[in-house]
Design goal:
By secondary structure, this protein is an alpha+beta fold. The chain folds into 2 domains: 2-184, Ribosomal Protein S5, domain 2; 191-326, Alpha-Beta Plaits, CATH 3.30.70. 40% of the residues lie in helices and 24% in strands. The strands form 3 sheets. Strands 4-3-5-2-1-12 form a 6-stranded mixed beta sheet. Helix 2 crosses helix 3 (141-155) and helix 5 crosses helix 6 (217-239). The chain binds (R)-mevalonate (MEV). Residues 15-16, 18-19, 160-161, 163-164, 202, 206, 294-295 line the site of (R)-mevalonate.
Amino acid sequence: MTVCSAPGKVYLFGEHAVVYGEPAVPCAIERRARVTVEPRSDDHVRVAAEDLSLDGFTVEYDGSTETQPDVDVDQSLVSAATGYVDAAVRQAREAADAPNAGFDITVESDIPLGAGLGSSAAVVVAGIDAATRALGEPIDRREIARRAYRAEYEVQDGQASRADTFCSAMGGAVRVEGDDCTTIETPNLPLVVGFDGGAGDTGKLVGGVRELKESYDFAANTVESIGDIVREGEALLAKADPEADPGPELLAELGGLMNFNHGLLSALGVSARSLDAMVWAARNAGAHGAKLTGAGGGGCIVALDPTPETETALSFTQGCVDAFRAELAIDGVRVEAT
Ligand code: MEV
């Protein structure tokens, strides 16, 4: 039995625009997906999923991913959760040169599904690491990130950047621009997350932005402007002392850029009433800045506030079902047990 875990993430800046080659800065947070893998003697894959913001379920199907599992829950929910596991299995089989390897897989996660915190990337990253290790063919974190990106790309019909998977594999804060992925140093930012209990459809939301961008120059310019915000933000982070607590000036500047970034995402049609309500609750509570994180449409916002005020305000905001302080996850993917 091999157990690996990988963190979720929030976007400080740059989601959506990163799909079109602009830079983005996501930060891994201490909410993790854990994947347990036990090799089988046949080529079947059995997936048990718990805590995925859906009722737990167990499915078993043969090695061919064309066969739909026969289960007693809504097929679209099963596809959403197992699609990523399937893709991770394909990558692990290929990496280990074991095309017929079968596995019993258990997925546990404290990252809500589809809520902008990188749940699918964390499951794929932890799954590839656990499955290749279980086959005695471990691969390094950059290779896990590369394969996890291919898995997401496949499941999301080619509409994925490397940001979520690279961040989850490496941990900490990262910068992604096209194929260029690097880890960066940041001070320990006081991140607060608000969750509306919902989820957005990443494929649809990315498709909507693509359509706008292709129809209107001003939408294409908006995507480029998000890239400009990211460049400003990363310059601020590069000047800061990663060992020191970020002072109010740095937080105010970063927060201002986050507010601007949220406005542009909103203009691109990926915010939602619940996300805007949480963003404004955070700002009114004194947060330095707040924005939606991830694909949008529902899910989570991230705010910068070293005081408890934003978390408290969010917990009293109508439509917010969970508010929590998110610590930066220093570790990316890691082995929990073998
Ligand atoms: C989704 O978490 C982030 C998006 O930028 C898509 C991607 O980068 O793959 C919307």
